[in-house]
Amino acid sequence: MSPSNSPSSSDRDAGLPGDLLGFDGLGPEENELAPTEADLEEGGSYDDGRRARFGAGIVWVLGRLAWLGLAAALSLGSAGIVAATGQSSASQGRPELTYGADQTLSDRLDAGVRDLAKLNDNVVVLGQMARNVLADLSQVNQTALGSDYKDGDKALLQIDTGAAALSSRLQCTPWPSTRDTELARTYSQDMIDRWHAVCAALDSVAPLAAGWASMENGAAVTMEVADDINAHDQSVKGALQSARSGLYPDALRQLATASASVDDAQRIATELSAVGDVSTLTDWLARTRSLDQALGLLWQSMIDSNGQVTIQVTAALRAVSDAEALLPDNNSVLQIVLYELAGDLTSDGLSIETSKGQLATALADLTGGMVVGQ
Questions:
Q1: CA 63 to CA 18: how far, in whole Å?
Q2: Rounded CA gap, 105 and 372, in Å?
């Protein structure tokens, strides 16, 4: 038999293109090629040739699918590598790296928030005592003021002691700018931010000591002036009773005691005038001193005239009448004076209220508005 130009079986096995593998013989019957000599040699049949070509085609298709699958896997793997290398080198998105430390710190901060709530209870008490001081001062209630001071001092001591202990336990101070970077190696940013918030809330109580001390001092000075005024009025009242009985020397001695009280109040007014407006007190003290001097002149004139109404006595009586007309006939001026003196005390009270509000707001933020257990 002469050589044929048809591809041999070895050529088909070598992976020739699909048209040489007989893929065109896999279509409808009318398009099938006639069997070649190779198909029929050694007793082969027409059907045997078709099966051989069909099997070779299947192998080729499966090979191509395998290469496509491998390429897709490599592509997905490369995309994963790129995505992984694109993430930050920090622990962001890697909570497992800080979970244990975060849990430990969270427990510490939870305990700190509970201690802040206890501090807040004492801050509320201090704020109430500040309001009580202003109210009792307006009533010139020395006994009630003493109780206010005692309760306020107790609350402030608990605030200062608790704040110092909590600050030390949480290492709130000092907090250098480099500390956040160091903490980020161990804790998540959320926990660091919460740590900051607890320490900031603790800072809000710092002004309370100065505000309360200023209020106590101001209230004490105001009460000293009120006491001087009251002592003066009592001495003058006794002097008038002695004068009505004709006991002018006794009246003059009591009047001297009253003048000493005015002198003390004037000393305080002079000191306060360097830092605030005490014009009402200064004016009232000057008019009171004028009345005292007029009374002293009248009673001395009565002593000199042996109780007779002389020109000097008449002139002294007119001076007393003029001095009395310049003073109120009730204690309303005392209320004005106390209000004037309490101006700084009101500022101190507002400072305490501001700190109280800041701490309450911070606690609400830290607890989501929930009541913190004691």
A1: 13
A2: 18
In a domain, 211, yes or no: no
Domain of 51, in residue numbers = 9-85
Task: Give the span between the Cα atoms of 292 and 297, in whole angstroms.
Answer: 9
> Which one, of 284, 274, 286, 288, lies nearest residue 344 by Cα?
274
Please give the Cα distance from 141 to 137 (Å, whole number). Answer: 6
Cα 187 from chain centre: 23
Q: How far is CA 104 from CA 94, 179, 195, 234, in A?
A: 17, 18, 12, 68
Q: Which two tokens stand for residue 249?
A: 């020397």
Helices 343-367 and 208-244, interaxial angle, to 10°? 150
DSSP letters for 157-203: HHHHHHHHHHHHHHT-S---TTHHHHHTTTS-HHHHHHHHHHHHHHH
| Residues 341/278, Cβ–Cβ less than 8 Å | yes
Number of domains in the chain: 3
More confident residue, 55 or 226: 226
**Side chain identity at residue 358, one-letter code:** Q
What does the alpha-carbon distance between residue 122 and residue 156 come to, in Å, rounded to a whole number?
A: 7
- Same domain, yes or no: 178 and 272: no
Q: Assess if residue 215 is contained within a domain.
A: no
What six digits make up the tokens of 154? 């107790």
Give the pLDDT score at 50. 57
User: Cα 324 vs. chain centroid, distance in angstroms?
Assistant: 55
Whether this prediction's pTM lies above 0.90 is answered by no
* 314 domain residue, yes or no: yes
Instruction: Band the pLDDT of 95: cuts 50, 70, 90.
Output: low
Q: Side chain identity at 297, as an amino acid letter?
A: L
Q: What is the C-alpha separation between 374 and 370, in angstroms, rounded?
A: 12
Largest CA-CA distance found in the chain, in angstroms, rounded: 180
Instruction: Find tokens 């190779």 and name the residue.
Output: 38
The whole-angstrom separation of Cα 269 and Cα 278 is 7
Could you tell me if 168 and 143 are in contact, meaning their C-beta atoms sit under 8 angstroms apart?
no
Q: Which ranges constitute the DSSP H helices of the chain?
A: 9-13, 37-40, 46-85, 99-138, 142-170, 179-183, 189-203, 208-244, 248-272, 279-304, 311-325, 332-341, 343-367
Band the pLDDT of 89: cuts 50, 70, 90.
very low
Peptide bond between residue 3 and the one before it cis (omega within 30 degrees of 0):
no
Q: Which residue has the tokens 């008019």?
A: 287
Within a domain: 108: yes
Which structure tokens are listed for 161? 């002691």
